[in-house]
Structure formats: structure tokens, C-alpha cells
Amino acid sequence: MPRYDILSEDAMAVLERGWRRLLSDIGVEFLHEGALDLFRAAGQRVEDSIVRFDPEWVLECVASAPSEFDLLARNPERTVHLGGRHMVFSPTQGPPFVREGEERREATMADFENLCRLSQTYDQLDTPGGLCCEPGDRPLDSRHLDMLLAVQTLTDKPYMGAVITEGAARDTMRMTDILFGGPNDGAVRVFGVVNANSPMRYDTRMIEAMMVYAAAGQAVIITPFLLMGAMSPASVPGSLVQQTAEALAGLALTQVVRRGAPVVLGSFLSHTDMQSGSPGFGGPESAMGLLCSGQMARRLGVPWRAGGGFLTSSQTADAQAAYEGLNTMLPAFLAGANFIEHSAGWLESGLVACYEKFIVDIEMLRMLQEEFTPLQIDEASLAYGAHQEVGHGGHFLGAAHTLERFRTCFYRPLLSSTENFERWKSKGGRDATERAGEIWREALAAYEPPPLEAGLRAELEEYAAGRRAELGD
């Protein structure tokens, strides 16, 4: 589909002047001496921990980053392409809690593994990510090893590496080398998601992880996390300018570490409820911000991670969760997002990964992917012969054209019900959330892990066990 541009050339020029002014006059804080030394050597103005950028130099950095690249999977059929007109989807990342039916509880490693299995099961998801929930029953300083093992063994799709510390990023690189059978040969085999500490700051741990991945030629998805009115101005234009400045500053760091390092420009723009102070997701400001962010990213010519996904502030997998989610996912499609996190399971402003919501989102994602598939229009699809056969006032149910196509001619829902009321009632009168609960349990029961050579699994487990011991766990 054509991309949905909503900004005029005049508006784009105003926004560009805005992010240029922020980068050159306000600057961005980097809490890392090594990063500051790199910027200083590149001729940027460094005062204490603040870097004030030459915008033209930043655009040179943008030009040196690849506009498209492949992200490899251990199963070559699962390799994905980032950039251009391609879209990559991952489930929700980061929730410390899970919801299973009526129960809301702290997430565990078993939940993490279940979400990996569901991510492997549904082809609408291209990657499990690497943090589909936060397993609170594993030690904080070594749980990244358990999560890496899970995404490497329970799925054969591309995965996200750890960014919590420099050491965790290096563990990711070592375990990725093991999985792929040797040191990196120039391919992009893992990605990390790095968030700015908005407003206008990158903290030490994020910078260290970013530098590890960039130095190794691996992809970094740089994402300012902005809640308008709290971490950015209480206006969409002001927040768009800040978002662009923060993301470009991070991109510039990857390029001074290694010219040509793959990078994805991220956006995550929502609002703060000015009555409660709570974050709000799924509102019109988010949709507007997504459409603008996509247009700005296309102008810069780098892959774009949308701050969309099926985001919602709802506490349950209800109608609010569905309509708010669609209001942030559909604009991401229309704006041409290349990478979309939080595509399944997000609930309660990102605090909760919900099993039932996971299935609701998969159903909506299946429908959107179908809608955005080009429509085939040819002589056969016009079905002139069917009109000749049926004539006036007849029906097409038994026509040859229908009988040839009825199995595949229309979308077959995973979750939605089209039963009449009596049949629906006789089968228990279950709503979508209840049906979703049955579907995810059946999917887990039918799950089969992708093949992995036994010696390779043993080597990964041995490395993780050794690192846990070094970390004191």
C-alpha cells in the first residue's frame, strides 16, 4: 500500500529545524567517557558529559548506516529483511507481570519459555525478541543467560540480545557465535534494543551495550521512550523533534564506533494522563505521532521501528484493549514501519504480558497482514462465467467458481466466532477472551521445538552454566 504521509513539506522543514536546534544548542548527555572521547575525536563539541552536534555531521553518519539489511536466523527460512517495504514483528517485550485468565502474577521463567513457544508457533511473528517477560524467579545478574538459551533453543527465529550491562551484551555475542558455529563473518545475527534515558540522555549501561553490538557489526534499534508531558513536551510536534534528536544522537554513536554498523531508528511516542499521571496508550496522539515518525524516518532513509504494536492501557483483554491496540498498530502499517515490537500480548501499559491478549493480537495481526497483501485483479477474479451460470436472482453458493475457491477464497479466523446465537450459546456462550484461553493452551500442548543439534545445545548450556558461576549464581 502507499505510505500515508500527513506532513506538508513546510511542516517537515519546521520539524527538521527543531531537531537540528536541539542537537546543536541543547545537546545530548552521554554518561560514558569512552563515548565522549569518540565524539571529541570526531570533532563534536563536548562539554562535561554534554555533546553538542554539528547537524550536517550527524546526517553524514545517517548516510553511512545501511538503508536495508538481512537479520539472520539459525533456520535460514526464518531470516528476515529490515528496511525498504518489509515489516518484522515481535511480541511484547519487558513486562514484569503476566496475566492468565483472571490471575495476574509476577512473571516466571516458565512464562518466558511459554511465550517463546507461542512466538515460534505463530508465523505472524518473525522474532520472539529477547525479553517477552521479565522472569522474576531467576537472579537478576544472570537471568539474561536463561533468556538467551530459551530464545536460541525454543525458537529458530532471529532474536534480541541482552542490553542490561556490557557483560550481558558480550555474553550475547559469545552465545551467538556458539549457535552459528563460529565468530561472526560480517552477517547481522542478533539485535539489541537501546533506549534513551529521556529527556536527552543516554545512561552508562545502554551506551556500553550499544557499543558492543555496533563494534561487532550487529544491529542496534535505538528507541527514545517518550511519554508526552513527562519525558517530553506536552505537544506532538515538540516530542517529535526530541524523539528525532535523541535517536539521531544514538545513531551517530554507532557510526563513530563502526562506520556502516546496521541501525534502526526507533520511535515510541505516547502521552501522560494529565489527571492521574499514569501513562496512556492507544490514544489519537500516539496514532498521529506514528504517522509523522514514519514520514520523518523515510526522509532520513534508515529502517524504522514504530512505537506501535497493539498497545493499550487496559487492565484486561477487553474491548478497550482491542480498540486501543488497533489505534496504534494500524498507523504503524500505514506509516510503513519496518520493525514492530509489542505485536502480541501487551496489556496494562506494558506492565503485563497476557496470554489471552497474545491470541487476540495474533488474530488482529493476521487480518492486517491479509489486508495489506496486494489484491489480485485479473479476468478470472472478475468471475464473469459465474454470472453466466447463476443468472438473475440466483445464488453463487453452488456455482463452479465458488466450489473451486471456497476453501481459500476468504480469511479463516483463528479466534473470531461467526456462529449463530443458538449454536454459540449451546457451545457455552464463550466470549473472545475465553476462546483465546483455549487456543493458547492448545497451541502450547501441540508445540514441538525446532531441531537443534544436541552437541550445540550442550555447548550453549555449558557456557551459560560457567557464566552463572562467575557471576555468583
Unreliable residue runs: none
Number of beta-strand segments: 19
Q: Determine the CATH topology of the domain at 61-371.
A: TIM Barrel
| Alpha plus pi helix count | 17
Q: How much of the sequence is in beta strands?
A: 5-15%
Q: Strands across the major sheet, in which order? A: 6-17-16-13-11-9
Radius of gyration: 24 Å
Main sheet attributes: strand count, strand direction, barrel closure: 6 strands, parallel
Q: How much helical structure, as a percent, in the residues?
A: 40-55%
Query: Which homologous superfamily in CATH is the superfamily of the domain at 61-371?
Result: Trimethylamine methyltransferase-like
Which CATH first-tier class of the domain at 61-371 would you pick?
Alpha Beta
Mean pLDDT: 96
**Span from first to last CA?**
51 Å
Q: In one word, what is the shape?
A: globular
**CATH architecture label name of the domain at 61-371:** Alpha-Beta Barrel
Strand pairing plus helix content: what structural class?
A: alpha/beta
